[in-house]
Amino acid sequence: MMAAKFKGKRLPIPYPLTPERKALQKQLENRQWIEDNWEELFGKYAGRIVLVKDKKIVEVTGTYDDMSKIIREKGYNLDEVCVLGFPPAGSKLTVVWPEMLPPKAREILERKAYVWLEHLK
Amino acid sequence: MSYPEEVVKLMKDRFPFRDLRERLAFCDDAGMLIRNTDEITRQEISALSYMVAREKDPLHPGLLEENIKGWPGWRFAHNTFDTREKLSLACGTTLDRVYVELTAKMWTGVPPIEVGTGPCKELKFTGDEVDLTMIPVMLSGEFDSTPHFLSNLLNNRDPETGWQNLANRRIHLKGKNRGVIDLVPGQQDSVIFMKYAMMGKPMPCITMNGVEPLTYICCALKAPAGFAELEFWGAVTGRPLEVVASETHKEIYTPSHAEIVLEGDVHPWEREMEGPFSEYMGYYCPLAVRIVNRITTVTMREDPIYYQFYFGVTPSEGDAIGNFVSELAAFKDLRDKLGPLVTAVRALDYGVGMIIQVDKNVIKGIPGIHKHTAPLARITMGPAWNHVAWIVDTDTNIWDDRDILRAMCHKMMGDKDIDFIRYSADSRLHPAARWEFPEDDTLCCFTIMDCTEPPPPHDMWYRRGQALPPRAALEEMEKKYPNIYKKK
Questions:
Q1: Is residue A21 less than 8 Å (CB to CB) from chain B?
Q2: Of B135, B181, B269, which to mutate for an interface test with A (greatest number of A Cβ within 10 Å)?
Q3: Mean pLDDT, consecutive 10-residue segments, chain A of 121 residues?
Q4: Domains and CATH numbers, chain B
Q5: CB contact burial A58-77 (16+ within 10 A = b; e otherwise)
Protein backbone atom coordinates (compact mmCIF):
# COMPACT_ATOMS: atom_id res chain seq x y z
CA MET A 1 0.00 0.00 0.00
CA MET A 2 2.58 2.48 1.13
CA ALA A 3 5.07 1.60 -1.56
CA ALA A 4 2.40 2.23 -4.20
CA LYS A 5 2.76 5.93 -3.53
CA PHE A 6 6.18 5.77 -5.05
CA LYS A 7 5.30 3.99 -8.28
CA GLY A 8 6.21 5.81 -11.44
CA LYS A 9 5.74 5.35 -15.17
CA ARG A 10 7.63 2.71 -17.09
CA LEU A 11 10.40 4.39 -19.01
CA PRO A 12 11.12 3.98 -22.69
CA ILE A 13 13.97 1.57 -23.43
CA PRO A 14 16.66 2.48 -24.27
CA TYR A 15 16.71 5.52 -22.04
CA PRO A 16 16.64 8.78 -23.99
CA LEU A 17 20.00 10.26 -24.90
CA THR A 18 19.30 13.83 -23.79
CA PRO A 19 21.68 16.79 -24.28
CA GLU A 20 22.66 16.48 -20.61
CA ARG A 21 23.58 12.83 -21.04
CA LYS A 22 25.54 13.66 -24.19
CA ALA A 23 27.36 16.32 -22.18
CA LEU A 24 28.24 13.75 -19.52
CA GLN A 25 29.57 11.41 -22.19
CA LYS A 26 31.71 14.28 -23.52
CA GLN A 27 33.05 14.85 -20.03
CA LEU A 28 34.06 11.20 -19.75
CA GLU A 29 35.79 11.43 -23.14
CA ASN A 30 37.70 14.52 -22.02
CA ARG A 31 38.92 12.68 -18.97
CA GLN A 32 39.98 9.74 -21.12
CA TRP A 33 41.83 12.11 -23.43
CA ILE A 34 43.78 13.52 -20.48
CA GLU A 35 44.81 10.05 -19.39
CA ASP A 36 45.77 9.00 -22.92
CA ASN A 37 48.00 12.06 -23.22
CA TRP A 38 49.11 12.14 -19.63
CA GLU A 39 52.83 12.25 -20.20
CA GLU A 40 52.78 15.18 -22.59
CA LEU A 41 50.23 17.17 -20.59
CA PHE A 42 51.97 16.53 -17.33
CA GLY A 43 55.20 17.85 -18.81
CA LYS A 44 53.46 21.11 -19.66
CA TYR A 45 51.02 21.56 -16.80
CA ALA A 46 52.57 19.99 -13.71
CA GLY A 47 51.26 21.74 -10.61
CA ARG A 48 48.52 23.54 -12.54
CA ILE A 49 44.74 23.22 -12.74
CA VAL A 50 43.40 22.71 -16.27
CA LEU A 51 39.95 22.79 -17.81
CA VAL A 52 39.45 20.49 -20.79
CA LYS A 53 36.70 21.03 -23.32
CA ASP A 54 36.30 19.05 -26.55
CA LYS A 55 39.61 17.32 -25.89
CA LYS A 56 41.53 20.60 -25.73
CA ILE A 57 42.93 22.46 -22.77
CA VAL A 58 41.10 25.78 -22.79
CA GLU A 59 41.84 27.20 -19.33
CA VAL A 60 44.83 26.95 -17.03
CA THR A 61 45.02 28.34 -13.50
CA GLY A 62 47.14 27.90 -10.40
CA THR A 63 44.34 27.23 -7.92
CA TYR A 64 40.88 25.70 -7.82
CA ASP A 65 39.48 29.01 -6.60
CA ASP A 66 40.75 30.81 -9.70
CA MET A 67 39.31 28.08 -11.90
CA SER A 68 35.98 28.38 -10.12
CA LYS A 69 35.92 32.09 -10.87
CA ILE A 70 36.67 31.53 -14.56
CA ILE A 71 33.99 28.84 -14.81
CA ARG A 72 31.40 31.20 -13.36
CA GLU A 73 32.48 34.18 -15.45
CA LYS A 74 32.59 32.34 -18.74
CA GLY A 75 29.61 30.10 -18.00
CA TYR A 76 31.18 26.72 -18.68
CA ASN A 77 28.80 23.82 -18.28
CA LEU A 78 30.40 21.56 -15.67
CA ASP A 79 28.65 18.58 -17.21
CA GLU A 80 30.62 18.71 -20.45
CA VAL A 81 34.05 19.82 -19.30
CA CYS A 82 36.62 18.12 -17.16
CA VAL A 83 38.77 19.91 -14.59
CA LEU A 84 41.88 18.28 -13.30
CA GLY A 85 44.73 19.35 -11.06
CA PHE A 86 48.04 17.98 -12.28
CA PRO A 87 50.38 17.00 -9.47
CA PRO A 88 53.53 19.07 -9.01
CA ALA A 89 56.61 17.70 -10.73
CA GLY A 90 58.32 15.00 -8.72
CA SER A 91 55.47 14.48 -6.29
CA LYS A 92 54.89 11.06 -4.87
CA LEU A 93 51.42 9.78 -5.64
CA THR A 94 49.54 6.70 -4.68
CA VAL A 95 49.58 3.54 -6.69
CA VAL A 96 47.29 0.97 -5.16
CA TRP A 97 49.17 -2.26 -4.57
CA PRO A 98 52.05 -1.64 -6.97
CA GLU A 99 53.64 -4.88 -5.84
CA MET A 100 50.76 -6.69 -7.50
CA LEU A 101 51.43 -5.23 -10.91
CA PRO A 102 52.94 -7.61 -13.45
CA PRO A 103 55.76 -6.17 -15.59
CA LYS A 104 53.53 -5.50 -18.58
CA ALA A 105 50.90 -3.57 -16.66
CA ARG A 106 53.62 -1.65 -14.94
CA GLU A 107 55.13 -0.71 -18.25
CA ILE A 108 51.79 0.67 -19.46
CA LEU A 109 51.32 2.60 -16.27
CA GLU A 110 54.80 4.01 -16.41
CA ARG A 111 54.14 5.34 -19.86
CA LYS A 112 51.00 7.05 -18.60
CA ALA A 113 52.18 8.18 -15.23
CA TYR A 114 55.87 7.71 -15.11
CA VAL A 115 56.51 10.23 -12.40
CA TRP A 116 54.07 8.54 -10.09
CA LEU A 117 55.99 5.34 -10.19
CA GLU A 118 59.44 6.77 -9.62
CA HIS A 119 59.40 5.93 -5.97
CA LEU A 120 58.74 2.29 -6.74
CA LYS A 121 61.96 1.75 -8.65
CA MET B 1 16.55 14.87 21.59
CA SER B 2 12.89 14.06 22.12
CA TYR B 3 11.04 12.67 19.13
CA PRO B 4 7.45 13.66 18.38
CA GLU B 5 5.25 10.84 19.68
CA GLU B 6 3.45 10.42 16.36
CA VAL B 7 6.75 9.88 14.53
CA VAL B 8 7.83 7.15 16.95
CA LYS B 9 4.41 5.49 16.74
CA LEU B 10 4.48 5.58 12.94
CA MET B 11 7.98 4.14 12.90
CA LYS B 12 6.96 1.29 15.21
CA ASP B 13 3.96 0.50 13.00
CA ARG B 14 6.00 0.44 9.81
CA PHE B 15 9.34 -1.03 10.89
CA PRO B 16 11.07 -2.90 9.33
CA PHE B 17 11.20 -1.12 6.02
CA ARG B 18 11.52 -3.64 3.23
CA ASP B 19 12.99 -1.25 0.71
CA LEU B 20 13.86 2.35 0.02
CA ARG B 21 10.29 3.09 -1.08
CA GLU B 22 8.71 1.96 2.16
CA ARG B 23 11.20 4.06 4.01
CA LEU B 24 10.45 7.10 1.81
CA ALA B 25 6.72 6.55 2.34
CA PHE B 26 7.35 6.58 6.09
CA CYS B 27 9.37 9.80 5.81
CA ASP B 28 6.60 11.33 3.71
CA ASP B 29 3.92 10.48 6.27
CA ALA B 30 6.09 11.60 9.18
CA GLY B 31 6.73 15.00 7.60
CA MET B 32 10.35 14.12 6.90
CA LEU B 33 10.26 14.25 3.09
CA ILE B 34 9.78 16.98 0.52
CA ARG B 35 8.95 15.99 -3.04
CA ASN B 36 10.59 18.50 -5.30
CA THR B 37 8.96 18.73 -8.72
CA ASP B 38 10.94 21.77 -9.89
CA GLU B 39 13.43 21.02 -12.63
CA ILE B 40 16.86 20.57 -11.09
CA THR B 41 20.34 19.80 -12.40
CA ARG B 42 22.69 17.31 -10.80
CA GLN B 43 24.97 20.13 -9.64
CA GLU B 44 22.02 21.79 -7.96
CA ILE B 45 21.16 18.53 -6.18
CA SER B 46 24.70 18.51 -4.79
CA ALA B 47 24.25 22.07 -3.54
CA LEU B 48 20.86 21.27 -1.99
CA SER B 49 22.25 18.21 -0.28
CA TYR B 50 25.03 20.30 1.23
CA MET B 51 22.54 22.92 2.44
CA VAL B 52 19.96 20.50 3.85
CA ALA B 53 22.60 18.72 5.95
CA ARG B 54 23.11 22.04 7.78
CA GLU B 55 19.52 22.21 8.98
CA LYS B 56 19.36 22.52 12.77
CA ASP B 57 16.29 20.31 13.34
CA PRO B 58 17.62 16.71 13.44
CA LEU B 59 14.39 15.39 11.89
CA HIS B 60 14.47 17.90 9.01
CA PRO B 61 12.95 16.67 5.76
CA GLY B 62 15.02 14.91 3.14
CA LEU B 63 14.30 15.35 -0.55
CA LEU B 64 12.94 13.31 -3.41
CA GLU B 65 13.81 15.04 -6.67
CA GLU B 66 11.22 14.14 -9.30
CA ASN B 67 12.33 16.27 -12.24
CA ILE B 68 16.02 15.89 -12.99
CA LYS B 69 17.17 17.86 -15.99
CA GLY B 70 18.40 15.49 -18.68
CA TRP B 71 17.25 12.32 -16.93
CA PRO B 72 13.50 12.13 -17.59
CA GLY B 73 11.66 9.51 -15.55
CA TRP B 74 14.38 9.23 -12.92
CA ARG B 75 13.97 10.18 -9.32
CA PHE B 76 16.81 11.05 -7.01
CA ALA B 77 16.53 10.82 -3.23
CA HIS B 78 18.93 12.39 -0.78
CA ASN B 79 19.29 13.57 2.83
CA THR B 80 16.67 11.16 4.17
CA PHE B 81 19.08 9.72 6.73
CA ASP B 82 21.59 12.49 7.32
CA THR B 83 21.40 12.69 11.14
CA ARG B 84 21.83 10.22 13.99
CA GLU B 85 18.21 10.77 14.94
CA LYS B 86 16.99 9.73 11.49
CA LEU B 87 19.42 6.81 11.36
CA SER B 88 18.14 5.59 14.72
CA LEU B 89 14.59 5.60 13.36
CA ALA B 90 15.87 3.55 10.42
CA CYS B 91 17.02 0.96 12.97
CA GLY B 92 13.56 0.79 14.52
CA THR B 93 14.44 2.73 17.65
CA THR B 94 15.39 6.15 18.97
CA LEU B 95 18.76 7.81 19.56
CA ASP B 96 18.73 7.30 23.34
CA ARG B 97 18.38 3.53 22.88
CA VAL B 98 20.01 2.75 19.57
CA TYR B 99 23.60 2.17 20.76
CA VAL B 100 22.61 -0.22 23.54
CA GLU B 101 19.99 -2.04 21.47
CA LEU B 102 22.09 -2.55 18.36
CA THR B 103 25.31 -3.47 20.11
CA ALA B 104 23.39 -6.10 22.13
CA LYS B 105 22.56 -7.78 18.81
CA MET B 106 26.13 -7.68 17.46
CA TRP B 107 27.22 -10.06 15.98
CA THR B 108 24.21 -12.28 15.76
CA GLY B 109 22.40 -12.95 12.53
CA VAL B 110 19.31 -14.23 10.80
CA PRO B 111 20.33 -15.64 7.39
CA PRO B 112 18.66 -14.03 4.36
CA ILE B 113 16.22 -16.05 2.28
CA GLU B 114 16.61 -16.42 -1.46
CA VAL B 115 13.60 -15.55 -3.57
CA GLY B 116 13.39 -16.43 -7.28
CA THR B 117 13.25 -12.90 -8.56
CA GLY B 118 12.51 -9.41 -7.31
CA PRO B 119 11.82 -5.84 -8.33
CA CYS B 120 15.54 -5.18 -8.85
CA LYS B 121 15.34 -7.34 -12.00
CA GLU B 122 12.45 -5.57 -13.70
CA LEU B 123 14.78 -4.10 -16.32
CA LYS B 124 17.93 -5.74 -17.58
CA PHE B 125 20.72 -4.35 -19.74
CA THR B 126 23.63 -6.45 -20.95
CA GLY B 127 26.55 -6.11 -23.37
CA ASP B 128 26.34 -3.01 -25.54
CA GLU B 129 23.10 -1.92 -23.85
CA VAL B 130 25.03 -1.14 -20.69
CA ASP B 131 25.49 2.61 -20.38
CA LEU B 132 26.16 3.99 -16.94
CA THR B 133 25.47 7.53 -18.14
CA MET B 134 21.76 6.64 -18.09
CA ILE B 135 21.98 6.93 -14.28
CA PRO B 136 21.96 10.51 -12.92
CA VAL B 137 25.19 10.17 -10.95
CA MET B 138 26.14 13.54 -9.48
CA LEU B 139 29.35 15.45 -8.99
CA SER B 140 29.80 16.05 -5.28
CA GLY B 141 32.41 18.76 -5.50
CA GLU B 142 32.77 21.35 -8.24
CA PHE B 143 36.07 19.81 -9.31
CA ASP B 144 35.42 16.11 -9.07
CA SER B 145 36.70 15.51 -12.58
CA THR B 146 33.88 13.11 -13.48
CA PRO B 147 30.99 11.91 -11.30
CA HIS B 148 31.22 9.26 -8.61
CA PHE B 149 28.67 6.73 -7.43
CA LEU B 150 28.81 7.42 -3.70
CA SER B 151 26.20 5.27 -2.06
CA ASN B 152 26.82 2.00 -3.80
CA LEU B 153 27.28 -1.12 -1.71
CA LEU B 154 30.03 -3.34 -3.00
CA ASN B 155 29.36 -7.00 -2.75
CA ASN B 156 32.09 -9.61 -3.14
CA ARG B 157 32.72 -13.17 -2.06
CA ASP B 158 35.77 -14.75 -0.50
CA PRO B 159 37.09 -17.35 -2.98
CA GLU B 160 38.39 -19.55 -0.16
CA THR B 161 35.58 -19.53 2.40
CA GLY B 162 32.54 -18.38 0.42
CA TRP B 163 31.95 -15.52 2.86
CA GLN B 164 30.00 -12.72 1.23
CA ASN B 165 31.23 -9.31 2.31
CA LEU B 166 29.60 -5.94 1.77
CA ALA B 167 30.99 -2.46 2.07
CA ASN B 168 30.16 1.06 1.04
CA ARG B 169 32.61 2.10 -1.68
CA ARG B 170 32.78 4.95 -4.10
CA ILE B 171 33.01 4.22 -7.81
CA HIS B 172 34.46 6.80 -10.13
CA LEU B 173 32.48 6.84 -13.38
CA LYS B 174 35.01 6.41 -16.19
CA GLY B 175 33.01 5.27 -19.20
CA LYS B 176 29.83 3.64 -20.43
CA ASN B 177 30.66 0.35 -18.81
CA ARG B 178 33.46 0.92 -16.39
CA GLY B 179 34.25 2.59 -13.13
CA VAL B 180 37.25 2.82 -10.83
CA ILE B 181 36.84 1.58 -7.28
CA ASP B 182 38.56 2.99 -4.24
CA LEU B 183 39.42 -0.03 -2.13
CA VAL B 184 41.28 0.75 1.05
CA PRO B 185 44.23 -1.61 1.50
CA GLY B 186 43.81 -3.76 4.60
CA GLN B 187 40.02 -3.60 4.69
CA GLN B 188 37.97 -6.73 4.21
CA ASP B 189 36.97 -6.24 0.59
CA SER B 190 40.54 -5.45 -0.41
CA VAL B 191 41.77 -8.60 1.36
CA ILE B 192 39.27 -10.57 -0.74
CA PHE B 193 40.43 -8.77 -3.89
CA MET B 194 44.03 -9.68 -3.09
CA LYS B 195 43.07 -13.34 -2.85
CA TYR B 196 41.65 -13.22 -6.38
CA ALA B 197 44.70 -11.32 -7.57
CA MET B 198 47.04 -13.93 -6.14
CA MET B 199 45.05 -16.55 -8.01
CA GLY B 200 45.29 -14.43 -11.16
CA LYS B 201 41.50 -14.38 -11.54
CA PRO B 202 39.09 -11.47 -11.93
CA MET B 203 37.04 -10.72 -8.84
CA PRO B 204 33.25 -10.88 -9.35
CA CYS B 205 31.94 -7.58 -8.11
CA ILE B 206 28.28 -6.64 -7.68
CA THR B 207 27.34 -3.16 -6.52
CA MET B 208 23.86 -2.02 -5.62
CA ASN B 209 22.20 1.32 -5.07
CA GLY B 210 18.92 2.37 -3.52
CA VAL B 211 18.29 0.20 -0.50
CA GLU B 212 16.70 1.25 2.76
CA PRO B 213 19.08 2.81 5.29
CA LEU B 214 19.36 -0.16 7.66
CA THR B 215 21.02 -2.12 4.85
CA TYR B 216 23.53 0.72 4.43
CA ILE B 217 24.18 0.70 8.17
CA CYS B 218 24.66 -3.08 8.28
CA CYS B 219 27.03 -3.01 5.32
CA ALA B 220 29.06 -0.07 6.56
CA LEU B 221 29.49 -1.53 10.06
CA LYS B 222 32.94 -2.78 10.89
CA ALA B 223 31.88 -6.38 11.39
CA PRO B 224 34.36 -9.17 12.17
CA ALA B 225 35.88 -10.95 9.16
CA GLY B 226 33.70 -13.89 8.11
CA PHE B 227 30.49 -12.27 9.35
CA ALA B 228 27.88 -11.73 6.63
CA GLU B 229 26.50 -8.23 7.06
CA LEU B 230 23.17 -9.09 5.46
CA GLU B 231 22.51 -11.47 8.36
CA PHE B 232 22.74 -8.56 10.79
CA TRP B 233 19.81 -6.94 9.00
CA GLY B 234 17.81 -10.00 10.06
CA ALA B 235 19.07 -9.75 13.64
CA VAL B 236 17.93 -6.12 13.93
CA THR B 237 14.56 -6.58 12.28
CA GLY B 238 13.79 -10.09 13.49
CA ARG B 239 13.03 -11.33 10.00
CA PRO B 240 15.22 -12.51 7.12
CA LEU B 241 16.14 -10.20 4.27
CA GLU B 242 14.85 -11.26 0.86
CA VAL B 243 17.72 -11.67 -1.60
CA VAL B 244 18.12 -12.72 -5.21
CA ALA B 245 21.04 -14.33 -7.01
CA SER B 246 22.91 -12.07 -9.40
CA GLU B 247 22.52 -12.57 -13.14
CA THR B 248 26.19 -13.11 -13.91
CA HIS B 249 27.54 -14.46 -10.62
CA LYS B 250 24.89 -16.73 -9.19
CA GLU B 251 26.82 -17.23 -5.96
CA ILE B 252 26.49 -13.56 -4.98
CA TYR B 253 23.21 -12.30 -3.57
CA THR B 254 21.71 -8.84 -3.46
CA PRO B 255 18.60 -7.52 -1.69
CA SER B 256 15.68 -8.21 -4.03
CA HIS B 257 14.31 -4.69 -3.60
CA ALA B 258 17.44 -2.74 -4.50
CA GLU B 259 16.77 -0.01 -7.03
CA ILE B 260 19.84 -0.54 -9.23
CA VAL B 261 22.34 -3.41 -9.41
CA LEU B 262 25.60 -3.19 -11.36
CA GLU B 263 27.25 -6.52 -12.09
CA GLY B 264 30.78 -6.91 -13.31
CA ASP B 265 34.35 -7.95 -12.61
CA VAL B 266 37.55 -6.44 -11.37
CA HIS B 267 40.58 -7.66 -13.30
CA PRO B 268 43.59 -8.31 -11.06
CA TRP B 269 46.02 -6.21 -13.10
CA GLU B 270 43.96 -3.45 -14.66
CA ARG B 271 44.45 0.04 -13.19
CA GLU B 272 43.22 3.53 -14.03
CA MET B 273 43.52 6.96 -12.49
CA GLU B 274 40.95 8.03 -9.95
CA GLY B 275 40.28 11.48 -8.53
CA PRO B 276 40.21 14.30 -7.74
CA PHE B 277 37.29 13.65 -5.40
CA SER B 278 35.69 15.60 -2.53
CA GLU B 279 37.15 13.67 0.35
CA TYR B 280 36.01 13.34 3.93
CA MET B 281 38.50 15.85 5.29
CA GLY B 282 36.84 18.58 3.25
CA TYR B 283 39.44 18.91 0.48
CA TYR B 284 40.00 17.17 -2.83
CA CYS B 285 41.99 13.97 -2.72
CA PRO B 286 44.94 13.67 -5.09
CA LEU B 287 44.99 11.48 -8.17
CA ALA B 288 45.64 7.81 -7.54
CA VAL B 289 45.94 4.68 -9.64
CA ARG B 290 43.21 2.25 -8.66
CA ILE B 291 41.39 -0.92 -9.70
CA VAL B 292 38.87 -0.98 -12.55
CA ASN B 293 35.36 -2.38 -12.37
CA ARG B 294 34.05 -3.47 -15.78
CA ILE B 295 30.26 -3.62 -15.76
CA THR B 296 28.70 -6.34 -17.89
CA THR B 297 25.08 -6.24 -16.69
CA VAL B 298 22.82 -3.63 -15.15
CA THR B 299 19.47 -4.56 -13.62
CA MET B 300 17.06 -2.10 -12.10
CA ARG B 301 13.49 -1.32 -11.25
CA GLU B 302 11.21 0.05 -13.95
CA ASP B 303 10.91 3.41 -12.25
CA PRO B 304 14.20 3.58 -10.40
CA ILE B 305 15.04 5.94 -7.57
CA TYR B 306 18.74 6.73 -7.43
CA TYR B 307 20.17 7.50 -3.98
CA GLN B 308 23.33 9.44 -3.37
CA PHE B 309 25.11 10.92 -0.36
CA TYR B 310 26.94 14.20 -0.59
CA PHE B 311 30.59 13.97 0.43
CA GLY B 312 33.07 16.71 1.12
CA VAL B 313 32.93 19.45 3.71
CA THR B 314 30.94 18.20 6.70
CA PRO B 315 28.23 17.96 7.94
CA SER B 316 26.97 15.78 5.13
CA GLU B 317 24.89 12.68 4.69
CA GLY B 318 28.02 10.61 4.07
CA ASP B 319 29.53 12.01 7.25
CA ALA B 320 26.39 11.18 9.26
CA ILE B 321 26.33 7.52 8.29
CA GLY B 322 30.12 7.20 8.64
CA ASN B 323 29.98 8.59 12.15
CA PHE B 324 27.00 6.50 13.17
CA VAL B 325 28.53 3.15 12.19
CA SER B 326 31.89 4.11 13.72
CA GLU B 327 30.15 4.94 16.99
CA LEU B 328 28.25 1.67 17.04
CA ALA B 329 31.34 -0.44 16.38
CA ALA B 330 33.54 1.44 18.86
CA PHE B 331 30.87 1.40 21.55
CA LYS B 332 30.51 -2.36 21.13
CA ASP B 333 34.26 -2.97 21.37
CA LEU B 334 34.80 -0.64 24.32
CA ARG B 335 31.90 -2.08 26.30
CA ASP B 336 33.08 -5.62 25.59
CA LYS B 337 36.57 -4.86 26.82
CA LEU B 338 36.12 -2.20 29.49
CA GLY B 339 32.58 -2.80 30.72
CA PRO B 340 30.55 0.05 32.19
CA LEU B 341 33.47 2.48 32.16
CA VAL B 342 32.40 3.70 28.72
CA THR B 343 28.96 5.30 28.60
CA ALA B 344 28.89 6.78 25.07
CA VAL B 345 31.02 7.35 21.97
CA ARG B 346 30.65 10.13 19.43
CA ALA B 347 32.51 10.22 16.13
CA LEU B 348 33.33 13.44 14.31
CA ASP B 349 34.00 13.85 10.61
CA TYR B 350 33.80 10.20 9.53
CA GLY B 351 35.60 9.07 12.67
CA VAL B 352 38.66 11.29 12.15
CA GLY B 353 37.94 12.63 15.61
CA MET B 354 36.14 10.90 18.44
CA ILE B 355 34.75 11.81 21.83
CA ILE B 356 34.50 9.09 24.44
CA GLN B 357 32.34 9.57 27.50
CA VAL B 358 33.39 7.64 30.60
CA ASP B 359 31.76 7.12 33.96
CA LYS B 360 33.58 9.37 36.41
CA ASN B 361 32.78 7.07 39.32
CA VAL B 362 34.64 4.20 37.65
CA ILE B 363 37.68 6.44 37.09
CA LYS B 364 37.77 7.20 40.77
CA GLY B 365 38.11 3.48 41.45
CA ILE B 366 40.88 2.97 38.88
CA PRO B 367 42.51 6.35 38.14
CA GLY B 368 43.85 6.64 34.61
CA ILE B 369 41.87 3.68 33.23
CA HIS B 370 39.94 5.99 30.92
CA LYS B 371 43.03 6.79 28.86
CA HIS B 372 43.04 3.22 27.56
CA THR B 373 39.76 3.81 25.79
CA ALA B 374 41.20 6.06 23.09
CA PRO B 375 43.77 3.72 21.43
CA LEU B 376 41.27 0.88 21.69
CA ALA B 377 38.50 2.84 19.98
CA ARG B 378 40.98 3.97 17.36
CA ILE B 379 41.61 0.40 16.28
CA THR B 380 37.90 -0.05 15.64
CA MET B 381 37.16 3.33 14.15
CA GLY B 382 39.98 3.23 11.68
CA PRO B 383 43.66 3.56 12.52
CA ALA B 384 44.24 4.77 8.99
CA TRP B 385 42.41 8.02 9.52
CA ASN B 386 41.36 8.61 13.11
CA HIS B 387 43.86 10.92 14.74
CA VAL B 388 42.38 12.71 17.70
CA ALA B 389 40.33 11.69 20.74
CA TRP B 390 38.77 13.68 23.54
CA ILE B 391 37.73 11.86 26.69
CA VAL B 392 34.95 13.46 28.72
CA ASP B 393 33.08 12.31 31.80
CA THR B 394 29.41 11.80 32.56
CA ASP B 395 28.98 15.42 33.69
CA THR B 396 29.45 16.38 30.04
CA ASN B 397 26.66 15.85 27.54
CA ILE B 398 28.53 14.19 24.69
CA TRP B 399 25.95 15.30 22.09
CA ASP B 400 26.10 18.96 23.10
CA ASP B 401 28.93 20.87 21.42
CA ARG B 402 28.78 23.63 24.01
CA ASP B 403 29.23 21.14 26.81
CA ILE B 404 32.20 19.57 25.03
CA LEU B 405 33.87 22.96 24.62
CA ARG B 406 33.24 23.71 28.27
CA ALA B 407 34.94 20.46 29.27
CA MET B 408 37.92 21.38 27.10
CA CYS B 409 38.14 24.79 28.72
CA HIS B 410 37.82 23.72 32.31
CA LYS B 411 38.87 20.11 32.63
CA MET B 412 42.05 19.97 30.61
CA MET B 413 45.54 21.20 31.39
CA GLY B 414 47.89 20.98 28.42
CA ASP B 415 51.01 19.69 30.17
CA LYS B 416 49.37 16.80 31.98
CA ASP B 417 46.21 15.95 30.06
CA ILE B 418 47.45 15.65 26.48
CA ASP B 419 49.15 12.46 25.33
CA PHE B 420 50.60 11.59 21.95
CA ILE B 421 51.38 8.47 20.01
CA ARG B 422 53.88 9.82 17.54
CA TYR B 423 54.46 8.41 14.07
CA SER B 424 51.31 6.34 14.01
CA ALA B 425 49.32 5.38 10.94
CA ASP B 426 47.30 7.98 9.14
CA SER B 427 46.00 8.83 5.73
CA ARG B 428 48.00 10.91 3.29
CA LEU B 429 44.79 12.88 2.83
CA HIS B 430 45.24 14.53 6.20
CA PRO B 431 45.61 18.27 5.50
CA ALA B 432 47.95 18.64 8.48
CA ALA B 433 50.21 15.75 7.40
CA ARG B 434 53.93 16.38 7.28
CA TRP B 435 54.14 17.41 3.65
CA GLU B 436 57.55 18.92 4.30
CA PHE B 437 58.93 15.43 4.99
CA PRO B 438 57.60 13.34 2.09
CA GLU B 439 58.73 10.09 3.66
CA ASP B 440 56.49 10.79 6.66
CA ASP B 441 53.40 11.96 4.87
CA THR B 442 51.28 9.00 5.88
CA LEU B 443 52.27 9.16 9.52
CA CYS B 444 50.45 11.21 12.11
CA CYS B 445 50.57 12.05 15.73
CA PHE B 446 47.57 10.46 17.44
CA THR B 447 46.47 12.85 20.16
CA ILE B 448 44.49 12.05 23.28
CA MET B 449 43.04 14.89 25.34
CA ASP B 450 41.74 14.05 28.77
CA CYS B 451 38.86 16.40 29.53
CA THR B 452 37.47 14.50 32.50
CA GLU B 453 37.08 15.90 35.97
CA PRO B 454 40.47 16.00 37.68
CA PRO B 455 41.11 13.27 40.27
CA PRO B 456 40.82 13.77 44.07
CA PRO B 457 41.21 15.89 46.13
CA HIS B 458 39.70 18.17 43.49
CA ASP B 459 36.25 16.66 43.90
CA MET B 460 35.97 16.65 47.70
CA TRP B 461 32.29 17.24 48.24
CA TYR B 462 32.58 20.32 50.43
CA ARG B 463 34.84 22.05 47.91
CA ARG B 464 33.47 21.10 44.53
CA GLY B 465 30.45 19.89 42.69
CA GLN B 466 28.70 20.81 39.49
CA ALA B 467 27.16 24.24 39.85
CA LEU B 468 23.59 23.66 38.76
CA PRO B 469 20.29 25.28 39.81
CA PRO B 470 18.28 23.53 42.51
CA ARG B 471 17.66 20.08 41.02
CA ALA B 472 14.02 19.70 42.00
CA ALA B 473 13.25 23.08 40.45
CA LEU B 474 15.19 22.20 37.30
CA GLU B 475 13.33 18.92 36.88
CA GLU B 476 10.02 20.68 37.39
CA MET B 477 10.84 23.36 34.83
CA GLU B 478 12.09 20.78 32.31
CA LYS B 479 8.77 18.98 32.60
CA LYS B 480 6.76 22.15 32.34
CA TYR B 481 8.69 23.77 29.46
CA PRO B 482 10.34 20.86 27.61
CA ASN B 483 11.04 22.82 24.47
CA ILE B 484 13.05 25.57 26.09
CA TYR B 485 15.81 23.34 27.37
CA LYS B 486 15.90 20.67 24.69
CA LYS B 487 15.60 22.79 21.61
CA LYS B 488 19.26 23.23 20.79
A1: yes
A2: B269
A3: 53 79 95 88 89 96 94 93 85 61 63 46 35
A4: 5-307 (2.30.110.10), 317-453 (3.40.1670.10)
A5: ebebeebeebeeebeeeebe
